[in-house]
Design a protein that fits this description.
5 strands, 35 helices, 763 residues, mainly alpha, 3-stranded antiparallel beta sheet, homodimer, transmembrane (chains A, B), two-stranded antiparallel ribbon
Chain lengths: 763, 763
């Protein structure tokens, strides 16, 4: 009884299977296509029922979590391997690594079962993973053998580990980021050559102007006498790390030389760095647009395939359509947790003319419709209202509710937060201040309880009430931590530093809440929260690059610079345990902990190098050529990745400033408004709109509308995107060729062109 | 005989004046309108013949040069006033300043004579200048009196001096830059508040986490115990100036604290600074677009007024037109140095249908046509060819010519330049190396002479052959300097360091020539050269801001930090002459010359502060509150101005990447191509196109085409803009409302709306 009689009698169901099982398999296949289109997955899976089942399993969340868990374990092995933060015996790390390799192999075999063999072997991702796994295994064997025979051994395959993060099927966003870097490289390269030419010319001029004057640096070394040293010094000056130190000896000799440095900084720091940003930004936009265009085409193609599975011809010679019954089944399979009302809303958007069936064009937009987050607001009565209506609707209770709804309530609590900020700033040793903390905690708890009393709990805790969740988590954790802290203090008489730290952090974090009360701030913060997931992609990118550099850096520099604890009396402490550093600025400024002795300090050092390129110490302890390592790092991270990051933030903000809601949004919104208007006409006295305003402030609807309201309302979380792709698509929607929309009728004909790009698993 | 008979008999010449003088005055008025439209001057001058004459005089180049000379003198007075680089007696600087004030007053009176009195007093620019002049005079009197009676006196009016640069009529670009800053301020302000909120929250957290741990900085001072100190340290960390120093004590205690600093840098340095750029860029674009739109409207309005002066109705009831004769007169008045061929080309572009007269729409585009640089290429025969054709056309001479034209010639000279670069890098004390310089000089001279022999000299020295000029100037100066150097050396036996410096600089600059040979580099360099004039506007902006800060800084900090020459034996040298600096990093790093003791070192210090905000020394010698000065400077210069500068460079590069030539260009180009095609059809054997290619490489046409070529060719210097406004207009041309083009028929009706903006002298 899954399909209606009309669909059973249809001629377009091309297969012979008329059994219910077979019909269900068809529905499942269609739902997989829709789901792939919704999440922009481009995997050419086998369409046999068994492969579809395996494919569905492949995308189950727990398998993905497991995969990422093993990747994380694999990456974090560096913490336990030589040079280790927490040393573990070799056999232990080896066993764990083998386990990880096994897990990756399983995942790969699973993937191989899902897609046809020829597609599997054509995909560079899979080849890449296989090669990484093989190389790692070979390296482990060699390393184990060498270690067992006490030879010097190098775990070179560790630099390959982060590449797994890129090449797993789920690393789509990351691969895209890497592609946009690769695409920008040729353009960047030419600007970089010109920039280096400028640095070389300036260095030559500096050598000629300043080299013969017998000037000295602050350390008493000869100033600007060696050409390559000058090149490096001036390159570092571009990063502003050694400004104004590098200029001082020349400036002290004559102020005329300052002009040389000012011109240099103007050209190389300000103009060339802006040109880099311009080039990166321009390329980024160009290629991303092209990729998103291909994504949209692939998505439409998949929707057309889903349509082909579901379609039936109602009347002889008519256009093929999908019936509401089939449509409902598919949507239920794609998103099981969607409620009926929401699904009906989506259907009414698709089936504009109320025909009970939709054509291809209307069906294709389903993938985008599913990506619009529609919040279903059920105006349930408050539990107290159901339990004890007399009390809940009594005059004092209503007064309380009106109080909490009032704007003054927010202002009062903002003032409390500010007072709290001052108290936090004061000395907490003072018992008065220490006790005041309890008062503030009580006030915050009261706020939450009041809100819970007034607003319907399920609305209050809905997934989109970011600040409500923030409040509750912070306040409750602070309460627990404070209680534990007091208990420890009373019982043992001492204060645990760790717990106190947590308490302080939670207290201070609570102050952030004040930002939400100011309209202008909220807009900026919301944009930042929205681009958050995309920033995480950049985070992964940075981790991959950092990991590779950390592994190489550890091999090159481990143990060269040592850190001695504060209470150490070792005389080597003054020069970081390396006599070569005696008297250098590196040792004097106490930078000894900035070393490559383990993976954690390597990562922290690489962050510092990203901010300011300070590397003279390592060139001293090894060789001047060590600077090449830092030079490559700077080019890759600061000039390329950071600029792409800035380009992304710029673009995201421009989209926020300029683009209106997309057409699709508005069609859903129009429908919602129509429904609302119908309801409003029924009950004119109801202040639905006001209630909507309140929701906008992330407060649920509750008592105020509890009287005689419609049982259901919708609201579009228009500013939130389910996927990064949806955000990207919106970013370039305005520029997307309208011709593309016309082409979705015959995607098969264009397969070759659309999917010629090797970046997609070809269809 | 200035006007044709038809125009004399026209009824639309509304005035009664039929004398030639009067007709000439009308032409002059029209030409002033056209010229104003061309240069986007928005001055509502009196249209009486006398005022027009005065107005023309007002715009004469020597008066402008004189004005800027006096502004320069007035600004550079700071070099001679207390605290002076070159002290002059008070009466001398006072006299010069009075002279400057007098000059400004004259210019203002002249301006007042040109425009109607009510307009004059409504213009804030004029009021501003008058107030500045008055205040300066008052200050001078007070200062003189106090000084004469030996009281302490302050020349506070000096901060007003750079404002003259902004408020003179010619400072249009500068005023626009200031307006775009002012317009961006509200948006920046909210992001800045949020940013400061974040810094304050992080500081509070740092105080709570780190303040109680008894950590010490490298100087042994308590670490992170005072809230405002933390705020300032963390603010400086945003500029990356004190990274990683500020983090080291905490990081040494535990690596967990490094996470705090990393999160801080991620949020405040990377994300917030990107958001600042996004906000500034967005506002900059938005308001600039609006201003350019108004500029275009104002321009069209002026062209319509010019048209109204010149128009005549040829046939009863027909549209008013401007005859070619009148048009020619006006163009001749507007640009006297334009040649006949160029003018005829422009006319044939305007008068598309060859009717001998043009309507309003065609006339209005004249202002833009005049802004397109059309280079008239006269294929003159080479002087040698005229003088001695037999020799010049002989086989060896032709071979030589073919050699110089060959690509290998360029490559050979690029190799010579690279070899020269290596020789420069080597030790010039070596006599072989020193003498090789003569060889290179001879080679470069030979190159120039060869080119002069082969290419027509006037084409070779044309205004647009940037690299030819560059070559000649550098090589000839190097030759002269080297000869002087040798002469001095031989006669006196010693080497003048100054002359040698100049020789070295010239030698190294010569190497830049190599860039022009590489196509990709040329494109980037050309874009940079093109945005050069606009960058100068930012230069003025920076000078204005720096000057004000230098004046205030000198009053606050002069003499607090002293610089001692290298050979000084004064013990105070170790602490920059101020005991408060004893043992500080400021003195240790020998930053003593970074002081506010005179205007030159103030400017250099301010540049350093723009690059990296190092100001701890000044807070030590005066008061912690001195940091406010540096804080404001950083916000204004780094966050606002530098970001607007970056936004401008970004936009300029995007325009280069994306925008095609504007319609107007193409219409001129079409005409040129038509003319060429006609010529080519005449002489098919002529390789005109090849010759054009050669010109593209900045080489003139000469011998190769000397045989039987058309006497005249045009070429559009399409990538060069006569005015900054033209560049801006092109930048936003794509976005300019097409409705605007339709509105130019009735600009009078819209005057109120168009010029409601107070930033233009209202029309």
């Amino acid at each position: 009884s899954l399909l209606s009689v009309s669909s059973l009698s249809s001629h377009t169901l091309s297969s012979l299977c008329l059994s219910l099982l077979c019909v269900f398999q068809e529905l499942e296949l269609a739902s997989v296509f829709v789901s792939d289109a919704q999440y922009n997955r481009n995997i050419f899976f086998d369409t046999s029922p068994r492969a579809v089942r395996l494919y569905l399993l492949y995308h189950r969340w727990f398998l993905k979590v497991l995969l990422y868990f093993f990747i994380l374990v694999n990456l974090s092995l560096a913490v336990f391997e030589e040079p280790a933060v927490f040393p573990l015996p070799l056999w232990a790390t080896m066993m764990v690594e083998l386990l990880c390799l096994l897990a990756f192999s399983f995942r790969l075999v699973h993937y191989a079962k899902v897609i046809p063999p020829d597609k599997f072997w054509k995909d560079p991702k899979n080849i890449c993973i296989i090669v990484i796994l093989m190389l790692t295994l070979v390296d482990m064997i060699i390393y184990g053998a060498l270690k067992a025979t006490n030879y010097y051994a190098l775990r070179w395959s560790r630099v390959l580990r982060p590449l797994l993060l890129v090449n797993v099927t789920e690393g789509r966003q990351l691969r895209r980021a890497f592609r946009s870097i690769r695409n920008a490289l040729p353009q960047i390269f030419y600007v970089f050559l010109l920039f280096m030419f400028s640095v070389l010319i300036f260095s030559l001029m500096a050598l000629k102007l300043l080299g013969k004057r017998g000037l000295q640096t602050i350390d008493g070394a000869p100033y600007f006498t060696h050409y390559l040293e000058i090149v490096f010094d001036l390159y570092v000056l571009v990063t502003t790390a050694n400004s104004p130190d590098v200029m001082m000896p020349a400036y002290n000799a004559s102020f005329v030389f300052a002009i040389f440095f000012i011109v240099y900084i103007l050209i190389n720091t300000y103009i060339f760095m802006s040109v880099f940003l311009a080039v990166v930004y321009n390329n980024y936009k160009k290629y991303l647009k092209e990729e998103v265009r291909q994504l949209v085409r692939a998505k439409r193609h998949k929707m057309v395939r889903a349509f082909a599975v579901l379609q039936e011809v109602r009347e002889e010679g008519g256009e093929p359509v999908v019936t509401q019954a089939n449509w409902n089944q598919v949507v239920r399979l794609v998103r099981p947790n969607i409620d009926n009302a929401h699904r009906e809303l989506l259907w009414s958007v698709c089936d504009d003319k109320n025909q009970g069936a939709i054509g291809k064009a209307a069906f294709v937009q389903l993938a985008d419709l599913l990506n619009i987050e529609v919040i279903t607001l059920k105006s349930r009565p408050h539990p107290f209202h159901s339990l004890c209506p007399a009390l809940y609707l009594s005059a004092p209770s209503r007064l309380l509710s009106r109080m909490v709804h009032h704007r003054a309530f927010v202002i009062v609590y903002d003032i409390i937060i500010l007072v709290n900020a001052i108290f936090i700033g004061l000395d907490e040793e003072n018992p008065m201040i220490a006790n005041s903390e309890w008062v503030f905690l009580a006030l915050y708890l009261l706020e939450i309880l009041l809100k819970l009393y007034v607003f319907e709990p399920r609305t209050f805790f809905s997934r989109h009430s970011f600040w409500n969740w923030f409040d509750i988590i912070i306040v409750v954790s602070a309460l627990i931590a404070t209680i534990i802290n007091s208990a420890v203090k009373i019982s043992g008489g001492y204060t645990s530093r760790q717990i106190l730290d947590i308490v302080f952090i939670l207290r201070v974090l609570r102050l952030i809440r004040v930002v939400d009360s100011i309209e202008r701030f909220r807009a900026i913060i919301n944009t930042l929260i929205r681009i958050g997931p995309a920033i995480l992609t950049f985070g992964q990118l940075i981790v991959v690059v950092y990991y590779v550099f950390a592994m190489v850096g550890m091999e090159l520099f481990k143990g060269k610079v040592k850190f001695y604890e504060e209470d150490s009396t070792d005389p080597a402490k003054a020069y970081c345990g390396n006599p070569l550093l005696r008297g250098t600025a590196f040792a004097q400024l106490n930078y000894c902990k900035n070393n490559f002795n383990n993976v954690v300090s390597s990562f922290i050092l690489l962050v510092e190098l990203t901010v300011v390129n300070q590397c003279s110490g390592f060139a001293t302890v090894t060789h001047v050529s060590a600077r090449i390592f830092f030079f490559i790092f700077h080019i890759l991270v600061v000039i390329v990745i950071i600029n792409i990051f800035v380009a992304f933030v710029l673009e995201a903000f421009f989209v926020e400033y300029s683009v209106d809601k997309s057409d699709l949004h508005t069609s859903v919104e129009r429908k919602i408004t129509e429904l609302e208007l119908a309801l409003e006409q029924e009950k004119l006295d109801d202040n639905l709109v006001n209630a909507m305003e309140t929701i906008d402030n992330d407060l649920g609807t509750g008592q105020s509308a509890a009287t005689n309201k419609p049982a259901l309302m919708f609201k579009i979380a228009s500013k939130r995107y389910r996927t990064v792709d949806a955000l990207l698509q919106r970013m370039f929607e305005a520029d997307l060729d309208p011709e593309d929309l016309a082409e979705d009728d015959s995607p098969e004909a264009q397969t070759g062109r659309n999917f010629g790009n090797p970046t997609f698993s070809s269809v």
